[in-house]
Design a protein that fits this description.
Blueprint lengths: L13 E3 L5 E8 L2 E7 L2 E6 L2 E7 L3 E2 L3 H8 L11 E12 L2 E10 L2 E11 L3 E2 L5 E12 L18 E15 L2
Antiparallel strand pairs: 1-4, 1-12, 2-3, 2-12, 3-6, 4-5, 5-7, 7-8, 8-9, 9-11, 10-11, 11-12
């Protein structure tokens, strides 16, 4: 693990508070941005590393037909690849900014990534516990993971961009 002068990640084991966290994505589509979230996800911080996963079947967008399409082999292929995962290899912190090198696996393919974002120091919560926050973002090229579906516009340009932004807003609670 790589650490700057400030401790990168708090000591101990921390689990995601799913009620106060979210995982989502955004991709340019036609004249705007298409967004979605995953309702079933997990994240743990332990031993100076971050590990996270999300269930593809929990993808949520504004149209159930599109949810089914995203779960199909043209996109995530939920039956063969039910989870997306991330695991950090190194974490660097500079004040409230954080950078993680790690590996993300989508549709059964693993790629190295650099995730950036913000981190808060641990605070005492109103229930006698401790928690801290991570706000993370990474941009991936979906074709690197075998996700190539597109529907060309009349101009011939692709309707769906290749670059996808994945975000995670996490509150993590210290485990006993």
């Amino acid at each position: 693990m790589s650490v700057t002068e400030t401790q990168a990640i708090p000591d101990g084991t921390w689990a995601v508070d799913k009620t106060h966290s979210n995982v989502g994505f955004a991709v340019d589509y036609m004249a705007g941005t298409f967004t979605g979230t995953f309702s079933d996800f997990d994240a743990v911080v332990a031993d100076g590393a971050v590990k996270g996963s999300t269930k593809v079947a929990s993808v949520q967008v504004k149209d159930p037909n599109l949810e089914a399409h995203l779960q199909s082999p043209e996109f995530f292929d939920v039956e063969r690849h039910p989870e997306l995962t991330f695991e950090s290899n190194s974490i660097e912190r500079d004040g409230d900014q954080v950078r993680m090198d790690g590996e993300i696996t989508i549709k059964g393919h693993t790629e190295p990534v650099e995730i950036t974002g913000a981190i808060s120091d641990p605070i005492a919560d109103q229930y006698g516990g401790e928690r801290f926050g991570l706000r993370l973002e990474v941009v991936v090229a979906r074709d690197r993971f075998g996700i190539r579906w597109n529907n060309p516009l009349p101009s011939g340009e692709p309707a769906l961009a290749n670059e996808v932004t994945i975000t995670a807003e996490l509150q993590l609670a210290k485990q006993e």
